[in-house]
Write a structure and sequence with these properties.
With 195 residues, this protein is mainly alpha-helical. The chain has one domain. Helices cover 77% and strands 0% of the residues. Helix 5 runs antiparallel to helix 6 and helix 7 packs antiparallel against helix 8. The longest helix has 27 residues. The two termini are 21 Å apart. The relative contact order is 0.12. The model has no long low-confidence stretch (mean pLDDT 94).
Length: 195
């Protein structure tokens, strides 16, 4: 009960117009920086697959748009669901990859720490807001299909974000598939809880 009360108080604070605008701005800046971060990889990626490379900035860009629609009082539940699922998935994925890099003895720098912290923030943001989205059952199926298509393109065609070490490929694949499954199960749980 205490956790639910704390969550409700936090969401009431986050839904204040000034804080929604602050989150909008932070995610906008983060998205721009994220697309810049992928600049080198995007230059060597075939045009048709470029959209599948920058997973994290795409997630924060979707979330930025979804927040903007809330701010102007025209929310789109499906967009918010996709944005939150992507934030959770790629936020946690980046934390896993950076932590794994540290654990295998990689040259873990401030950049890795910054990436871990900022992506953890993305995941938390996604978890907070996904619980506020009222979505239709069909949205879960569409979300699952979109995430699986992205996973297949990333790992079957090698379009995934560059890893810090080639030896991370296995953990990257296992974590991305696990996160897809867990997020879909969580969405089914949320839907069932509201029905």
């Amino acid at each position: 009960m205490l956790l639910k009360d704390t969550y409700n108080k936090l969401m009431n604070i986050l839904k204040q117009p000034i804080l929604l605008f602050l989150l909008f701005f932070v995610n906008l800046v983060g998205s721009i920086y994220g697309f810049y971060w992928y600049q080198q990889q995007l230059t060597v990626t075939p045009s048709i697959f470029k959209i599948f490379v920058p997973d994290s900035p795409t997630a924060s860009a979707f979330f930025t748009i979804a927040l903007f629609l809330i701010i102007i009082k025209k929310p789109k539940p499906f967009m918010m669901l996709v944005a939150c699922a992507w934030l959770i998935k790629y936020g946690l994925w980046a934390v896993i990859i950076n932590t794994h890099f540290y654990l295998i003895g990689g040259n873990y720098t401030f950049t890795n720490f910054h990436l871990s912290l900022s992506h953890l923030g993305m995941a938390i943001e996604g978890f907070l807001f996904i619980n506020e989205v009222y979505f239709k059952k069909g949205y879960i199926l569409t979300l699952t299909i979109l995430m699986l298509i992205n996973d297949i393109i990333d790992y079957k065609l090698g379009i995934h974000p560059w890893l810090f070490a080639q030896s991370q490929w296995g953990i990257a694949l296992i974590s991305v598939i696990s996160l897809t499954v867990l997020i879909c199960i969580y969405c089914i749980f949320l839907y069932g809880k509201r029905s």
